[in-house]
Amino acid sequence: MGQARAGSPRLALIGGEAGVGKTRLATHLALQAHGEGATVLYGRCDEDLGVPYQPWVQALGYLVKETPQPVLDGYVERFGGDLARLVPALGDRVAELPAPRQSDPETERYLLYAAIAGLLETAGEHEPLLLILDDLQWADSPTLSLLRHVVSAGSAMRVMVLGTYRDSDLSREHPLTALLADRALIARGRPEDLDRARPMLEQAAETAERLGAEGITREIAESRAALA
Question: Could you say which of 10, 11, 144, 162 would form a disulfide bridge with 151 (CB–CB 3.0 to 4.6 Å)?
Answer without folding.
Answer: 11
